[in-house]
């Protein structure tokens, strides 16, 4: 991955620009052309790698490569076989079939996500359905999902956004389970929803970096000055063993700036050896650790692993042509520009995800929810959530200052993520 040829687009265009100016580089270019003629086809491959778009536009399909039937797949031909990228599509207003459950009917939604209870004046955000361009999504069949989980464990591992997806999954299923036959319990980093009659669990494990970090306390996580320990995935991974369906995410906590602090030894060392890596390199290291862990610990004949891409924030309204100084607060409509990509959403990270998965044979199903969520500036919790600290008069006077443009109201967008998970689980 670290070969000079796969360097970024900026450095390759730099070389070409210089070549016009310098005779030395002109000679070099002539030599490259000569080599290109000698090794025609290889050179086309190399050019392909240099083109940043070529690695960005092809959707990853780790599942397509191996022809054998994936665990939990139903039937032989799947949606992907028909050439449908379920992550490419548009939002359709669907008042008769959405939402898939009511906020008041799911007691497991944390008070940070119950927007109606906290005074959101409208609920337009609940009535959207994702419509892929090339096919229809199968409807979410809660009976099928729950029967599939009989005697099994499903676990979401990652940060608060993945916790949201976990809660959404529980909300989608819990109606089928009578009151006294289900429970939700938390043990430190692990939250477990149990469907007793089914002997099934749906779990969430807090590990915002997947690797060990100084933000691992599930309740009190230090926000600034984050440090991640290299090679430490087993610290958390030992709690993921034996899971049948695993869903990872990690993104937001890496966004501290352009560099990330990486600890080489242990957090107990008196003198800590800490290096600063560019965020993309640090993230790549974590992704590779995850793949290695999956390879060593998951049985590809019986289990499935998913990875959910970056959840976008909507903290700057100028991104979508709004008034300067505003954010997701008071937003009730979708972004219609199909090419919209928010400035908080780091393309470099998406590129790393693409490269790491493409270079890997470990079967992980990629849930590319970033673009479809990018359109949903209306779907955040904004100010309609439980506030942990009382608001100051200044805040009350200006709601934009305390609107949460990271997390999502429930029911809402994250139910769609689970519809996509459902689709990829049964119809890969
Ligand atoms: C949902 O799945 C169950 C169990 O596989 C099946 O019996 C039922 O027909 C499905 N429902 C629909 C609407 O497809
Ligand atoms: C319940 O499920 C677990 C896996 O989560 C399994 O190990 C155990 O054997 C199951 N128990 C029964 C009684 O089916
Ligand atoms: C919210 O947006 C509407 C227009 O969509 C506008 O009329 C209203 O003044 C805004 N409210 C606040 C408090 O900014
Ligand atoms: C995810 O989808 C977006 C938009 O369709 C695309 O730009 C991006 O490259 C995809 N990511 C990967 C890793 O395939």
Radius of gyration: 23 Å
Overall form: globular
Average pLDDT rating: 87
Estimated helix fraction: 25-40%
Could you give a short account of the major beta sheet? 7 strands, mixed
Structural class: alpha/beta
Family: Belongs to the PC-esterase family. TBL subfamily.
Main location: membrane
Membrane topology: Single-pass membrane protein
Pfam family, one: PC-Esterase
Textual characterization of the structure:
The chain is an alpha/beta fold and 428 residues long. 31% of the residues lie in helices and 16% in strands. The chain has 13 helices and 14 strands. The chain has helices at 9-21, 23-38, 40-50, 52-57, 62-65, 142-148, 160-173, 233-237, 279-297, 347-358, 370-374, 393-397, 413-426; strands at 89-93, 128-132, 153-158, 182-187, 190-195, 200-206, 227-229, 245-249, 259-263, 274-278, 304-308, 365-367, 380-382, 404-408. A seven-stranded mixed sheet has the order 4-5-6-3-8-11-12, with helices on one face. It has a three-stranded mixed sheet with strand order 7-9-10. It has a two-stranded antiparallel sheet with strand order 1-2. α2 crosses α3 (40-50). The chain is globular. The two termini are 28 Å apart. The relative contact order is 0.15. Mean pLDDT is 87; it is low at 1-19 and 32-57. One 2-acetamido-2-deoxy-beta-D-glucopyranose binds at residues 56, 59-60, 87-88, 350, 353-354, 368, 370-371. It is found in: Membrane. Keywords: Membrane, Signal-anchor, Transmembrane, Transmembrane helix. One of its GO terms (molecular function) is O-acetyltransferase activity. The chain crosses the membrane at residues 21-40. InterPro entries: TBL, TBL_C, TBL_N.
């Amino acid at each position: 991955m670290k070969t000079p040829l796969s360097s970024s687009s900026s450095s390759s265009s730099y070389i070409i620009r210089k070549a016009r100016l310098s005779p030395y580089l002109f000679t070099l270019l002539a030599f490259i052309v000569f080599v290109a003629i000698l090794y025609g086809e290889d050179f086309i491959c190399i050019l392909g790698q240099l083109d940043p778009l070529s690695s960005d536009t092809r959707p990853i399909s780790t599942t397509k490569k191996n022809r054998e039937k994936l665990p939990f797949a139903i039937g032989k031909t799947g949606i992907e076989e028909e050439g449908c990228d379920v992550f490419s599509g548009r939002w359709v207003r669907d008042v008769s079939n959405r939402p898939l459950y009511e906020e008041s009917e799911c007691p497991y939604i944390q008070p940070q996500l119950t927007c109606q209870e906290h005074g959101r004046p409208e609920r337009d955000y609940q009535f959207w359905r994702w419509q892929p361009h090339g096919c229809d999504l199968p409807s979410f069949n809660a009976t099928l999902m729950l029967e599939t989980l009989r005697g099994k464990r499903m676990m979401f591992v990652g940060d608060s956004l993945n916790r949201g997806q976990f809660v959404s999954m529980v909300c989608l299923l819990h109606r089928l389970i009578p009151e006294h036959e289900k429970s939700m319990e938390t043990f430190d980093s692990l939250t477990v929803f149990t469907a007793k009659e089914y002997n099934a669990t749906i779990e969430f494990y807090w590990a915002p970096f997947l690797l060990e970090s100084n933000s691992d306390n599930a309740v009190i996580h230090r926000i600034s000055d984050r440090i991640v320990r290299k090679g430490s995935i087993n610290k958390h991974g030992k709690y993921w063993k034996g899971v049948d369906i695993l869903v990872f995410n990690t993104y937001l906590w890496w966004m501290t700036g352009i560099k990330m602090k990486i600890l080489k030894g242990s957090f107990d060392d008196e003198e800590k050896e800490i290096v600063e890596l560019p965020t993309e390199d640090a993230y790549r290291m974590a992704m590779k650790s995850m793949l290695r862990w999956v390879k060593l610990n998951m049985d590809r004949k019986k289990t499935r692993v998913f990875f959910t891409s970056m959840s976008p924030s909507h903290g700057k309204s100028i991104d979508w042509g709004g008034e300067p100084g505003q954010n997701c607060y008071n937003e009730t409509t979708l972004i219609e520009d199909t090419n919209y990509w928010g400035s908080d959403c780091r393309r470099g990270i998406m590129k790393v995800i693409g490269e790491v998965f493409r270079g890997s044979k470990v079967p992980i199903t990629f849930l590319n929810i970033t673009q479809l969520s990018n359109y949903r500036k209306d779907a955040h919790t904004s100010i309609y959530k439980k506030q942990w600290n009382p608001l100051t008069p200044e805040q009350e006077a200006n709601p934009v200052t305390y609107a949460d443009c990271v997390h999502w109201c429930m029911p809402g967008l994250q139910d769609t993520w689970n519809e996509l998970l459902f689709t990829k689980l049964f119809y890969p």
